[in-house]
C-alpha cells in the first residue's frame, strides 16, 4: 500500500468516516509496510492529521505487532523515534503528536529493557539534555513528559509475569533518580507548567514502587506546594494526588516508624478541614484532601488503630479518627453541597470489623477508647440521614444518590451497634423521646423522628440475636401515640418499616399485637403507607402464625377492602401472599369460605375474558388475564396446606386448560404461556410427592403451548416436575414421553433456522441445556434409556453454546457438558456420541482459546476441558493433534514449540482447575495478541 493511498484514505475518512475507508486504514496499520511508511507521515512538514495518524500507527505497531519487527531493526527503530521526537520538540510541533511519540518511545523501552537496551532511562535523559536546542524549560518539560509516560505505558502493557517482573525491577532501580529530579524541580522557583509536569511525573513513578525511607522527604516538598498560596489550584490538586501516591503505596507499610513520621507531617493539612462551611458546590481541594486522609486510613489502618494504645502516637491517631468523624459530619446535604461524608463509610466498617475480630478478645482495651467516637458517630449519622426540607427541589439523580446514601448510613448504623450494643439504643431512644414528647414537637421535628426510626430499623437484624429488648418495648409502645394524620408521611412510613423490621420480636411479645395490628390495618387504608404496612404485615404473619391467629378475621376483612383500592400489581401480589400465609394457618374447612372470597374475583375475571369470542377484544384483555393468574400464583406460593392447594387446583386448572386451548399462540415470546407455566410451577412445588391429582393436566397444559412454540417457561416448568417426581416409578412413563417430545420439538425448532441465527434463540437454548443438565445430574435414566432422543444434536448444540457471547448461556452449556461427559463413560450410547463428536467440541474449545470468542468464556470452558481430560485423556491428545497438526488450524502469534508445550501442560492437568485456567488464559492471551513475547526468548 502506497503512502499516497493512505494519505488519500485518511483525508476521505476525516470528511465522511466511510466504513470502507476505515478498513483501508486498519489494513495499513496491520501491514508490515507500515513500519517504514510511518516515518514519511511523521515528517514535520506534513499536515497535522497525517502526523497524528502516523504517531498513532507507530504506537500500535510497537504495542500490538512487535513480533513483526526483526531483532536487527531494534536499534534503528529506537534511533528513529528519538530523532523524530527531538525534531518535533525543536520545531514546537503539535502537542498531541509529541505526546503520542513519547508513548511510542516508552512502549519501546518496555519492550527492550533490560536485554536490548540496558540503562535506558539514564541514557534517555542524557540524550535529550544534549540534543534539544530549546531553553531549559522545554528540556525539563520534555524529559518529564517522557518519564511520566513510562509508568503509564508499563501499566497498560500486558506482559507474561516473568517479563513484567523484569521491567518493573528496571523501573524501580531508576525511581530514586527520577524522584530526585522531580524533588529538585519542585523545590526551585519553577513556573506552574513545569510544576504540573513534575507532579504528574512524581505520581506516576510513586505508583511503580519506592523506598519510603529514602523518599519520605518528598512529603515536605509536596506539602510546601499545597500550602503555597501562589500555586494554581491545578498544582495543589496534583500535589495532593502525588502525596497520596507516596503515603498509600503498599510498600510504605514496611517501616512503621517512618510511616508515623510521614503521617505527622501530613496531618498539618487537616487544619483546612476542621472548619468547613456549607458551599454552593463541593470544594475540589477539600474533596482531594479527604481522599488523601481516607486513603492513608485504608492503607495504614492497623498501625493507626494500634497507635491509640501507644503514648507516643495516641494524639496523632486520635486526630486522624476525629478527622474521619469531621468528614462524616461535613456540613450540608449529600450530594447537593457536599460529597465527602459518604467516603468514610468503608473506614467505619473496617474499624468495627477489626475491633471485633477474634484476636481482639472480650477485654479489648481499644473498644473502651473508641466507644465515645461511635457515640458521636451515631449522633452525626442521625443528622446526615435526615431528610432536607427542600427535597422536592432536587433533581431525580440527586434524590436517587441521597437514597443510596441513606442505605449506606443504614449499614453504618449496624456497625455502630456492633460496637456500642445497648449504649446505642440509649442514644437513639433518648433522642427519639425528646422529639416525640408531644404532638407538636413530633410534627415540627418529623425529620429527626424519621431518622431515629430509620436507625432502629437498620439495627433490627443484629438485635435479633439478643434475648432482652427493653428498649424495643418502649419504642413499640410509643408508636401508637404518633400523630399519623398530621405528621409528614415519610415519618409515618418509617413507623411501618420499623414495625416490620421487628417482626421476629412480635413472636416473643404477642401482647403487643393488640397495638401493632390496628396500626398496620390503618396503614393498609393509607395509599402512602400501604407498601410499608403490607410488607410489615407479611413478615409478621409469616413469623407469628399462631399468635396472630386471633386477628385473622380483622386482617382478612381489611385486606379484602384494601384489595379493591390497590392500584399497583406488585402491592396486590404482596397482599395476596400475606392472605395465603394467614389462610395456611387455618384448617381447610374453616378457611375455605375466605379462600373462595379471595380467589373468586380473579376466577370470575378469567372466566369472563375466556368467554370473549372476538380476537381483537380478547387481545385488549390479555394483560388483565395474565395479571389475574399472577395474583393467584402469589396466593398459592404462600400456602403450604395440601387440601387448600388441591382446592385451588380443582378450581383453576379447567380455566387454565381452556386458556391454553383458546389463547396460547405460536410465538417464542407468549407472555400468557409464561405466566401460566409460572403458576403451574408454583403448584408443582406445593404438591410434595403426591402429583396424582394434577400432574397429567399440568403436563397437558404445558405441552399445548410447547407444541405451538417451544418456550423457556415450558422447560423450566418441566424441570421442576422432573426434580419433584422423577424418581417415582408411577410418573416415570409420562415424564419420559414428555421429555422425548420436548427434545424432538426443540430439535425441529433449531433445524428450521440457520446456524448463524441459532443464537437468536438463546433463551430457548439456555433453558433446554439447563433441563438436560439437571436430568443428567439428578435422574440420568430418564434420558439415557430414551432411544428417540438425538444426543448428538444436544451435544453439538451445547458445544456451539459454549462459544456464546452471553455468559449465562456459556455457563449452562458447561453445566450440561460436564454432566454429560461424566455420565457417558458408563453408557455405550453416550460414549459413542463423545467418540464421534468429541473432536467437534475440542474444535470449539480451540476457537475460544485462539480468540474467536470473548475471553470471558475461557475460565468457564476450562471446566469442560478438565472433564474431557479426566474421562477421555487419550482421545483429547489425539483430537488436539488432528485439529492443530493434520487440519493445520492456525493458532496466531505462537510457535510450534509453544503449542506443544501448551498441549502437554493441558493434558497434565486432570484435577487442578486453577492451574489449568492459568495455563489456558496465558496461552489464549498470547494468541489474541494481548500478551506479546519474543519466540526466541520463550523457546
The largest sheet is:
none
The number of helical runs is 48
Using only C-alpha atoms, the radius of gyration works out to 35 Å
**Structural class of the secondary elements?**
mainly alpha
Distance between the termini: 34 Å
What's the shape?
Answer: globular
Number of beta strands: 0
Residues in β-strands, percent: under 5%
Question: What value does the average pLDDT take?
Answer: 90
Helical content band: over 70%
Organism: Acyrthosiphon pisum (Pea aphid)
GO molecular function, one term: small GTPase binding
Pfam families: IBN_N, Importin_rep, Importin_rep_3, Xpo1
Keywords: Nucleus, Repeat, Transport
SSE diagram, text form:
Elements: H1 3-16, H2 19-30, H3 34-41, H4 48-64, H5 74-90, H6 95-112, H7 120-131, H8 136-156, H9 161-187, H10 192-208, H11 212-215, H12 218-227, H13 233-248, H14 256-266, H15 284-299, H16 301-306, H17 314-328, H18 345-355, H19 365-385, H20 396-420, H21 422-435, H22 439-444, H23 446-458, H24 460-463, H25 470-479, H26 489-501, H27 503-508, H28 513-524, H29 530-543, H30 552-565, H31 569-584, H32 588-610, H33 615-637, H34 642-663, H35 671-686, H36 695-708, H37 712-725, H38 732-751, H39 762-778, H40 781-784, H41 791-801, H42 807-824, H43 828-850, H44 857-871, H45 873-886, H46 896-908, H47 913-927, H48 935-938
Subcellular location: Nucleus
GO molecular function: small GTPase binding
Domain Importin N-terminal: 21-87
Amino acid at each position: 500500500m502506497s503512502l499516497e493511498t493512505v494519505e488519500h484514505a485518511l483525508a476521505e475518512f476525516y470528511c465522511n468516516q466511510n466504513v470502507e475507508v476505515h478498513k483501508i486504514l486498519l489494513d495499513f496499520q496491520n501491514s508490515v509496510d507500515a513500519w517504514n511508511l510511518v516515518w514519511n507521515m511523521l515528517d514535520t512538514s506534513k499536515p497535522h492529521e497525517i502526523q497524528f495518524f502516523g504517531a498513532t500507527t507507530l504506537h500500535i505497531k510497537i504495542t500490538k505487532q512487535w513480533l513483526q519487527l526483526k531483532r536487527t531493526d531494534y536499534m534503528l527503530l529506537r534511533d528513529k523515534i528519538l530523532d523524530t521526537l527531538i525534531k518535533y520538540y525543536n520545531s514546537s510541533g503539535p502537542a498531541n503528536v509529541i505526546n503520542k511519540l513519547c508513548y511510542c518511545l516508552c512502549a519501546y523501552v518496555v519492550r527492550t529493557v533490560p536485554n536490548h537496551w540496558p540503562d535506558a532511562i539514564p541514557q534517555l535523559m542524557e540524550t535529550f539534555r544534549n540534543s534539544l536546542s530549546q531553553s531549559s524549560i522545554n528540556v525539563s518539560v520534555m524529559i518529564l513528559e517522557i518519564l511520566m509516560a513510562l509508568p503509564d505505558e508499563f501499566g497498560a502493557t500486558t506482559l507474561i509475569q516473568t517479563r513484567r517482573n523484569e521491567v518493573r525491577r528496571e523501573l524501580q532501580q531508576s525511581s530514586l533518580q527520577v524522584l530526585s529530579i522531580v524533588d529538585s524541580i519542585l523545590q526551585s522557583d519553577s513556573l506552574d507548567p513545569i510544576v504540573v509536569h513534575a507532579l504528574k511525573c512524581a505520581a506516576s513513578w510513586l505508583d511503580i514502587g519506592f523506598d519510603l525511607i529514602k523518599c519520605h522527604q518528598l512529603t515536605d516538598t509536596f506539602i510546601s506546594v499545597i500550602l503555597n498560596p501562589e500555586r494554581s489550584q491545578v498544582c495543589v490538586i496534583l500535589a495532593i494526588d502525588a502525596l497520596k501516591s507516596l503515603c498509600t503505596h503498599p510498600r510504605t507499610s514496611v517501616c512503621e516508624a517512618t510511616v508515623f513520621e510521614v503521617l505527622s507531617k501530613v496531618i498539618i493539612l487537616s487544619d483546612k478541614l476542621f472548619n468547613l462551611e456549607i458551599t454552593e458546590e463541593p470544594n475540589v481541594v477539600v474533596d482531594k484532601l479527604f481522599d488523601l486522609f481516607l486513603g492513608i486510613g485504608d492503607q495504614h489502618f492497623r498501625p493507626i488503630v494500634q497507635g491509640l494504645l501507644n503514648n507516643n502516637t495516641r494524639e496523632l491517631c486520635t486526630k486522624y479518627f476525629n478527622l474521619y468523624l469531621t468528614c462524616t459530619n461535613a456540613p450540608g446535604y449529600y450530594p447537593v453541597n457536599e460529597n465527602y461524608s459518604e467516603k468514610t463509610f468503608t473506614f467505619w466498617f473496617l474499624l468495627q470489623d477489626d475491633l471485633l475480630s477474634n484476636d481482639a478478645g472480650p477485654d479489648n482495651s481499644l473498644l473502651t477508647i473508641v466507644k465515645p467516637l461511635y457515640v458521636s458517630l451515631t449522633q452525626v449519622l442521625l443528622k446526615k440521614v435526615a431528610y432536607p426540607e427542600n427535597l422536592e427541589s432536587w433533581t431525580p439523580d440527586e434524590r436517587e444518590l441521597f437514597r443510596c446514601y441513606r442505605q449506606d448510613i443504614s449499614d453504618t448504623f449496624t456497625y455502630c451497634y456492633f460496637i456500642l450494643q445497648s449504649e446505642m439504643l440509649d442514644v437513639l431512644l433518648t433522642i427519639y423521646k425528646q422529639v416525640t414528647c408531644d404532638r407538636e414537637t413530633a410534627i415540627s421535628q418529623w425529620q429527626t423522628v424519621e431518622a431515629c426510626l430509620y436507625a432502629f430499623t437498620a439495627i433490627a437484624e443484629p438485635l435479633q440475636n439478643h434475648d432482652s429488648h427493653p428498649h424495643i418495648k418502649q419504642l413499640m409502645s410509643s408508636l401508637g401515640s404518633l400523630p399519623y394524620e398530621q405528621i409528614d408521611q415519610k415519618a409515618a412510613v418509617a413507623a411501618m418499616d420499623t414495625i416490620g423490621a421487628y417482626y421476629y420480636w412480635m413472636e416473643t411479645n404477642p401482647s403487643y399485637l393488640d397495638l401493632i395490628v390496628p396500626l398496620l390495618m390503618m396503614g393498609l387504608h393509607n395509599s402512602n403507607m400501604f407498601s410499608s404496612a403490607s410488607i410489615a404485615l407479611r413478615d409478621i404473619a409469616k413469623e407469628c402464625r399462631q399468635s396472630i391467629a386471633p386477628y385473622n378475621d380483622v386482617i382478612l376483612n381489611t385486606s379484602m377492602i384494601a384489595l379493591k383500592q390497590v392500584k399497583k400489581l406488585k402491592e396486590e401480589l404482596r397482599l395476596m401472599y400475606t392472605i395465603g400465609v394467614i389462610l395456611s394457618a387455618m384448617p381447610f374447612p374453616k378457611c375455605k369460605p375466605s379462600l373462595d372470597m379471595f380467589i373468586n374475583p380473579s376466577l370470575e375475571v378469567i372466566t369472563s375474558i375466556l368467554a370473549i369470542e372476538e380476537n381483537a377484544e380478547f387481545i385488549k384483555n390479555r394483560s388483565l388475564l395474565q395479571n389475574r393468574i399472577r395474583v393467584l400464583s402469589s396466593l398459592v406460593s404462600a400456602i403450604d396446606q395440601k387440601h387448600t392447594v388441591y382446592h385451588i387446583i380443582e378450581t383453576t386448572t379447567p380455566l387454565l386448560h381452556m386458556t391454553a386451548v383458546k389463547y396460547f399462540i405460536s410465538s417464542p415470546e407468549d407472555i400468557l404461556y409464561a405466566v401460566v407455566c409460572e403458576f403451574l410451577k408454583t403448584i408443582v412445588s406445593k404438591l410434595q410427592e403426591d402429583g396424582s391429582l394434577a400432574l397429567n393436566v399440568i403436563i397437558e397444559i404445558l405441552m399445548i403451548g410447547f407444541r405451538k412454540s417451544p418456550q423457556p417457561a415450558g422447560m423450566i416448568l418441566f424441570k421442576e416436575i422432573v426434580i419433584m417426581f422423577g424418581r417415582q416409578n408411577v410418573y416415570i412413563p409420562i415424564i419420559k414421553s414428555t421429555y422425548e417430545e420436548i427434545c424432538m420439538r426443540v430439535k425441529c425448532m433449531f433445524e428450521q433456522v440457520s446456524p448463524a441465527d441459532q443464537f437468536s434463540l438463546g433463551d430457548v437454548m439456555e433453558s433446554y441445556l439447563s433441563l438436560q443438565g439437571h436430568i443428567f445430574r439428578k435422574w440420568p435414566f430418564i434420558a439415557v434409556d430414551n432411544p428417540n432422543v438425538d444426543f448428538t444434536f444436544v451435544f453439538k448444540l451445547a458445544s456451539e453454546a459454549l462459544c456464546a457471547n452471553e455468559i449465562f448461556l456459556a455457563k449452562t452449556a458447561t453445566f450440561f457438558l460436564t454432566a454429560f461427559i461424566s455420565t457417558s463413560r458408563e453408557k455405550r450410547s453416550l460414549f459413542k456420541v463423545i467418540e464421534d463428536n468429541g473432536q467437534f467440541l475440542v474444535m470449539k474449545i480451540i476457537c475460544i482459546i485462539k480468540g474467536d470468542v470473548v475471553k470471558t468464556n475461557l475460565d468457564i470452558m476450562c471446566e469442560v476441558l478438565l472433564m474431557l481430560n479426566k474421562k477421555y485423556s487419550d482421545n483429547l491428545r489425539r483430537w488436539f493433534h488432528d485439529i492443530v497438526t493434520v487440519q493445520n488450524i492456525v493458532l496466531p502469534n505462537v510457535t510450534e514449540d509453544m503449542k506443544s508445550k501448551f498441549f502437554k501442560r493441558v493434558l497434565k492437568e486432570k484435577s487442578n482447575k486453577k492451574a489449568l485456567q492459568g495455563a489456558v488464559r496465558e496461552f489464549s492471551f498470547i494468541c489474541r495478541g494481548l500478551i506479546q513475547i519474543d519466540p526466541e526468548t520463550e523457546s
